[in-house]
Specification:
This protein is α/β, with parallel strands linked by helices. Strands 2-1-3-4-5 form a five-stranded parallel sheet, sandwiched between helices.
């Protein structure tokens, strides 16, 4: 369903280019891809190939009538604004922005170039769109409504292991989408009689930091 939705989104965004091509000599469509992670990750390889496959189904083939400009932050969120600005400077037709952080950086970089979010947590709560029914602006895409999903995971965990009292949650504090998710999980945990222990880490090399219930670092 996610791939179908993404392909349909691209068909709408690139439709004007098809009409233009019928009147003028063929032009090359240019897509900017803003990746939060690394191109070498297996999940990144799978998603990029799915994007290419969907575009081929629409008649867009790299080297023929399509160019994809890739920019990867390699997990360093602070690089996203700079990379988004590079894509805007290249005058791409559409930007595919990975994750909430990527979409936020792209939105800050341009208010005119269409931005497609493959999957984000909550685009409304993070300010990416005005509402799911009427997103407005230049941002569109798919969401997996992660607050409800994460709360349901706690319920399933409690059902599977009724004696569970404490649950650890590891999150990246630089990811804006984590804040509403953690709030929803806190509410669910209290109703289930669970203690939620939060740990923060920005990457594999950073020591995990446990937080107190008030958000301060535990000592």
């Amino acid at each position: 369903m996610r791939l179908i939705g993404l392909v349909l989104t691209f068909s709408l965004l690139l439709a004007p280019l098809v009409s233009f091509a019928q009147q003028q000599p063929p032009r090359i469509a240019r897509i900017g891809f803003l990746g939060v992670t690394s191109a070498s990750l297996s999940i990144s390889v799978i998603r990029v190939e799915a994007l290419r496959r969907g575009l081929r189904d629409l008649g867009y083939v790299e080297g023929k009538n399509l160019t994809i400009e890739f920019r990867w932050a390699e997990g360093r969120h602070e690089r996203l604004p700079e990379l988004a600005a590079e894509l805007v400077g290249l005058k791409v037709d559409v930007i595919v922005a990975q994750g909430t952080q990527g979409a936020s950086a792209a939105k800050q970089a341009t208010a005119t170039i269409p931005i497609v979010m493959p999957v984000v947590a909550d685009p409304v709560d993070t300010g990416l769109v005005a509402s799911l029914a009427r997103p407005g602006g230049n941002v569109t895409g798919l969401t997996w409504v992660s607050q409800e999903v994460s709360s349901k995971r706690l319920e399933l965990l409690k059902d599977a292991a009724p004696r569970t009292k404490r649950v650890a949650v590891l999150s990246n504090p630089d990811n804006r989408s984590n804040s509403p998710i953690l709030k929803a999980m806190e509410l669910a945990a209290r109703s289930l009689g669970l203690e939620l222990q939060q740990f923060h880490a920005r990457g594999p090399s950073e020591p995990r930091k446990r937080l107190c219930s008030d958000g301060r670092e535990a000592r």
